[in-house]
Design goal:
This protein is of the alpha+beta class. It contains three helices and ten strands; from the N terminus they run E-H-E-E-H-E-E-E-H-E-E-E-E. It is 21% helix and 43% strand.
C-alpha cells in the first residue's frame, strides 16, 4: 500500500492525501483531499510544543513520567487551498480508504530534494543515517501499527516532526530539582521545547512487517 503513497517521481508541488475507511467513496475522497491540503499548509509552517515531566526516587526508581506534545498550523487558507488543487488520480483501498494525488498550482514545480537509497538488505539508508542536503535538515519518526493506516502514518509523521524539533529547537527550558535525605535522593525534572518548522515535508516512508512499525522521513528548511 505504501507504494501508492510514493510521490518521489513527481515534482515537489504534488501531494498525496489518504482518508481512512468511511461509509461512502464520496466521503473518503473528501477526507483524502482535506488530508492533501493539510500537507500543503504544514509545508508552509508547523509549530510544535513539547513538554516532559518526570520524577525519580533512588529507592523506587522512576515514580512518574508524563509528556504532552502538540502541533499547530494555520488552517485559515484551507478552503482556498482545496479549491486550487488539481486532482491527478484517485485510488481506493480496503485498508487506506481513498488515496488522492493532487498538484498545487500555488507552489512552483521543483525536483524533490531527496530520493531514497536502499542498502544490501533492501532497507532505506535513512533509517540509520540522516540524508545531507544543503539548506535542509531531516528527522525520522516511527509508530506502531494502528488499526487504520492513516492513523499509523500520522503518528509516524508527528514523531518525525518531533525529531526535527529535538535536533534544533527555537526555545528550550529545563528545570531540575534534586533533594537528598541521607542516602535517599529525589529528582524532579521539567523540560519544555517550542519550535517553528518551515518547509515541513514527508519525503519517504517504510513499513517494518516483522516489528509492525511505520517509519517516516521528514525534512524542513534550515
Amino acid at each position: 500500500m505504501l507504494s501508492s503513497l510514493d510521490i518521489s517521481r513527481y515534482p515537489s508541488n504534488v501531494y498525496v492525501g489518504i482518508s481512512g475507511p468511511y461509509s461512502t467513496q464520496e466521503r473518503m475522497v473528501e477526507e483524502a483531499i482535506l488530508s492533501a491540503a493539510k500537507s500543503i499548509l504544514l509545508n508552509q509552517a508547523l509549530a510544535l510544543d513539547s513538554r516532559l515531566v518526570s520524577s525519580y526516587h533512588s529507592s523506587m526508581g522512576l515514580t512518574s513520567f508524563a509528556t504532552e506534545e502538540a502541533a499547530y498550523y494555520d488552517d485559515r487558507a484551507m478552503a482556498e487551498t482545496i479549491d486550487a488543487l488539481k486532482a491527478l488520480s484517485i485510488q481506493f483501498d480496503e485498508q487506506a480508504g481513498a488515496v488522492v494525488l493532487v498538484s498545487y498550482p500555488g507552489q512552483a514545480e521543483a525536483s524533490r530534494i531527496y530520493q531514497t537509497v536502499y542498502d544490501e538488505q533492501g532497507l532505506p539508508t535513512w533509517l540509520k543515517t540522516y540524508p545531507k542536503v544543503d539548506g535542509y535538515r531531516f528527522g525520522v519518526g516511527s509508530a506502531k501499527r494502528y488499526y487504520f493506516l492513516n492513523d499509523s502514518l500520522e503518528a509516524a509523521d508527528f514523531a518525525a516532526a518531533q525529531n526535527l524539533l529535538d535536533l534544533k529547537t527555537d526555545h528550550a527550558l529545563s528545570v531540575e530539582k534534586v533533594r537528598t535525605e541521607g542516602e535517599v535522593m529525589q529528582r524532579d525534572l521539567y523540560q519544555a521545547q517550542r519550535g517553528l518548522l518551515s518547509g515541513f515535508s514527508i519525503l519517504a516512508r517504510y513499513y517494518d512487517k516483522d516489528a509492525q512499525t511505520y517509519w517516516s522521513l521528514a525534512s524542513c528548511y534550515e
